[in-house]
Amino acid sequence: MNKKDGYEEQSNEILSHEEREQHEKDLQDLTEAASALFRIPVFFSHQNLFSLDTTRQRFIVRMFNEIKKVLLFPRTLPNTDEYPDTTLENIRTMVNSSYGLVAALLVPTGPTSPQGEPYSPFLQIEPAMGYQYGLPLFLVAERAMLDRAGGIWSGQTAPFTPIVWFSNTVTVEQFFNSVPWKEALQNWAGQVRSGYFAQTGPEFEYKFNSHD
Fold first, then answer.
1. Is 63:172 a contact under the CB 8 Å cutoff?
2. CATH class for domain 37-198?
3. How big is the chain by its Cα radius of gyration, in Å?
C-alpha cells in the first residue's frame, strides 16, 4: 500500500456513517447540478401553504417534486426566493428570470383577504405577467375553484385551459399518476426547454467542411 492509499484509507475512517451518507448525497447533488437542464428555473405560483388544509398542502408539495423530476427548478415566493422590493417588483423579477410559469389554484380553508376574496389576487397577477412576458404557462386548478375564479382560470383562454383536479373523487396520488397530468407536464417542460435553449444558445454555430 503506497502513501496515497494509506492517506485515503485514513481519511475514510475519520468520516462517520452519517457523514459518509451526506458526502455521497452532496456529490450526487453536485453531479445533478452540473446538468444544464437541471438548472432551468421556472416560477411556481401557488397559494400560501398556511391557507390550505393538509391534503392540499400535500398536493402543492407533490407538484413541486413532480416539476423537479423533469429536471426543472421550481421557484416560489417567498419559499425559495425573496427580494428586498415590493411584492409586484418581486413577481416581475421572478418572471423575468424564469423560463416557464406553472400555477396551482386550490380551495383554501377560508377567505384569503379582509375583503373576503376566495383566493389571493396574485393567482391572477402572476400567470398574467408570465403570459405577457411570453413564458410557457401550465395551469392546474381544483374543480371547485373553477366556479369561483374568473380571468385566466375561466377555462376560456385556450391553449391555457387548466388541468382539473376533481378532489372529491380523485386522490392526490391518483391525480399525479394520471395520464393527463403526465402528458401536460411533459409538454410544458418541453416548451420550457425549447425556450431556454433558444434564449441561451449561441446566435450562430461554426461549421467546418460545409458547402452550405
1. no
2. alpha beta
3. 22
List the domain boundaries for the chain: 37-198
pLDDT in tens, the chain (212 residues): 454 454 344 444 466 777 778 777 777 766 665 555 567 999 999 988 888 899 999 999 999 999 988 989 988 875 444 444 567 888 888 899 999 999 999 999 876 555 556 778 888 889 989 988 999 999 999 999 988 887 888 766 556 688 999 999 999 999 999 999 999 999 999 999 999 888 887 776 666 665 55
Please report, as a single letter, which amino acid is at residue 200.
T
Work out the angle at residue 13's Cα, subtended by the Cα atoms of residues 9 and 17, and round it to the nearest 5 degrees: 130
pTM of the model: 0.74
DSSP character string of the chain: --HHHHHHHHHHHHS-HHHHHHHHHHHHHHHHHTSTTTTEEEEEE---GGGS-HHHHHHHHHHHHHHHHTTEEEE-TTTT---SS-HHHHHHHHHHT-S-EEEEE---SS-SSTT--SS-THHHHHHHHHHHHT--EEEEEEHHHHTT--GGGSS-STT-PPEEE-TTT--HHHHHTSHHHHHHHHHHHHHHHHHHHHHHS-SS---SS---
